[in-house]
Design brief:
Length: 276
């Protein structure tokens, strides 16, 4: 799931436009940033202006990441259009379903601009600029679908500012986070509770090998540990030694822990340099 920070234009009221799926108009830079963005808007519909397709074509040559993404986005679009044409007999004006290609992740439809759009821009926006022509398409869609939320999605901050200035809802696109709540993401490390050794120290085996200390412990927390997970326990008082270890094995209620080399200690310095 993609995190999207919604910024609604003043005239769009939440109460009147929540029953219909939103219509997101994608700027070219969104597809060049993430070709899979076509499948990341869940139940909502997407619209691609013809200028977006032309810019995509103009940027697909080269060996840069942007060029590779442009080519991949073009392949995705070709697959979608080819499949839709085979089913509909060439009529794609009603939208291309995204559900089959996305494996059910996206249930909306993709609309391509199939007609010429001539919408007068505010005098402050030059009509010859591509960004402004895309904004004109969004204005046209707002008038065509007054009961739907029509939203421009662009990575270009200046384009979003211009869109807001003329009363268009605009959003940035984020694909860096795949969950709504980043706290749910696996961090790869875990702090052990203060009573860990009281609850897992009974019958513990320990030995040293290769400069590391190994602990085989048994207790209720072991089954939730993951192999290669970093675990630690900071000191709580004077005279205590912190623990920094990695989980090597997990078998039911038993886990094998291996201590890590402490590079903050001077004895483990690298050419006289220690970690902080």
């Amino acid at each position: 799931m993609v995190e999207r920070k919604l910024r609604l234009a003043p005239q769009i009221t939440k109460s009147s436009k929540t029953s219909l799926p939103k219509l997101f108009v994608l700027d070219t830079n969104v597809l060049m940033h993430d070709p899979t963005s076509l499948y990341r808007f869940e139940e909502h519909d997407l619209y691609l202006p013809i200028l977006t397709l032309e810019e995509l074509d103009n940027n697909k040559k080269g060996v840069t990441e942007v060029a590779r993404n442009a080519r991949q986005a073009s392949r995705y679009l070709d697959e979608l259009v080819t499949a839709a044409v085979a089913i509909s007999g060439g009529n794609i004006a009603g939208g291309i379903p995204l559900k089959p290609a996305s494996g059910g992740a996206a249930t909306g439809r993709l609309f391509l601009q199939t007609e010429a759009i001539s919408t007068a821009l505010p005098p402050s926006l030059a009509g010859g600029k591509t960004d402004n022509q895309i904004i004109a398409v969004v204005i046209h869609l707002q008038r065509l679908h007054p009961k739907r939320s029509v939203i421009l999605v662009s990575k270009d901050i200046n384009m979003r500012i211009k869109a807001h200035a003329v009363g268009i809802a605009a959003e940035d696109y984020f694909n860096d986070k795949v969950l709504e709540d980043t706290d749910l993401l696996y961090s790869g490390m875990r702090e052990l509770p203060a009573d860990f050794w009281d609850r897992h120290g009974k019958g513990m085996e320990s030995w040293q090998q290769g400069g590391h200390t190994y602990y085989r412990v048994t207790g209720p927390l072991c089954h939730s540990l993951l192999v290669n997970e970093f675990i630690y326990q900071e000191t709580k008082g004077p005279g205590e030694t912190p623990l920094y270890a990695i989980v090597k094995e997990v078998a039911g209620r038993t886990a094998l822990l291996q201590t890590l080399r402490d590079y903050t200690h001077h004895k483990n310095n690298v050419w006289g340099i220690t970690a902080r």
